[in-house]
Amino acid sequence: MRRNIAIILALALTLSTAACGGASRQNTDTAAVEAVEAATATVEAESDEAGTEDNAPGTESNETTPGTEPTAPASEEETEEVTTVSVAAKTPGIANRKPLAGTEIKITDIDPLMIGQAEDKEAATGCTVLICEDGMRAGLDVRGGGPASRESQLLNPLMSAQIVHAIVLAGGSAYGLGTANGVMTYLEEQGIGYDTGYALVPLVAQADIYDLSVGDPSVRPGPDMGYEAAKKALESPNYQDGNHGAGCGASVGKIAGMDYAMKTGIGSYAVQIGDLKIGAIVVLNALGDVYDWRTGEQIAGFLTEDKTSLRSTMEQMSYSIEAKDNKFTGNTTLAVVVTNANFNKSQLCKIAGMAHDGYARSINPVHTSADGDSIYAVSVGDVAADQDLVGALGAEVVSEAIIRAVYNSEGAYGLPAVGDLK
Hints:
Blueprint: H1 2-21, H2 25-49, H3 76-88, E1 103-105, E2 114-120, E3 125-142, E4 148-150, E5 164-170, H4 179-189, E6 194-195, E7 200-201, E8 204-208, H5 223-235, E9 251-252, E10 262-263, E11 266-273, E12 276-283, E13 289-291, E14 298-300, H6 313-317, E15 334-341, H7 345-362, E16 363-364, E17 374-383, H8 387-407
Parallel strand pairs: 5-8, 15-17
Antiparallel strand pairs: 1-11, 2-3, 3-5, 3-17, 4-8, 6-7, 9-10, 11-12, 12-15, 13-14, 13-16
């Protein structure tokens, strides 16, 4: 900084002298060069003697202004830091976003919920399992036209079961629904389930995304993967945002096929207000585009021809009003809203419905016939709280979890992520 100031002052002084004293152009150029060289040498000498003031303890010399990159990173570690800053700069304040109310916490801070994940990264598919050993009250709201699900009717308020023991989010479309069998096997081994008098029957609900167009369509999550994820949930919880679990093969922006789609994944967000905790896990796998719900800026979705920036799915769809029978790529965004507030199944179904506003704010188009968009809402505590407040907060944490699913994912399987865009 001092060097730049000294150089600028030297140039200004030289040029000013030329202007006022009538020096020739050649003499002015020569004087300017000599002044700059002298100023540079002086500042560099002072920096050497002072131990380089710009790098003194308590200051940062490698700070990167958003949208710029350092000239020559000194190491791989520095390069990674710059990449992180560059990605974060793509959305206003992603590293410092504050909840509209309360304090941000981790999704894993909502006890006694336990979360485990397993994936096949080569095949681009996986599963995420949420378990509550003593059971959790749960509701469900499905608004997409093509869901792949299991035990959904169990969450209907008219059904007799008041709790479920696990919820599974997985890839593989309808083929992946067998994942829950492995979860049931593990839970039975742990003595977890509904006692029928003859056997323990773990109650496990499941919903899947369509990820067969991303990796190997012949490989799908199954009982073995479900067993592994359930075991991790209880013995070594390993939840992570990004290309993990059910988000391993997730993508968005598929209106023109996978050639112009973008890689996303799984994301989470949670807040606490007093004793109330509420959070969401979202597997972002939409047909449409993704927007920052606070600014309206498109942050993911349908790629341009050169695959370096974004264009509008709605604009692409509007080129023709002709009906399309099969939007072949398949989609579905899944979410689980979790709270420690005390609600019954009927109330949780309403909360899940309100949480769909988080989808509507963040994804466009959403709830199409080619999506299986679903949201579970589960209660794992006994805190007294207002149902409408929790429903409204549910929409907020869903929208924020969607943003985390975008920015924590990495490009894979030939699909760029947000960090790969210009």
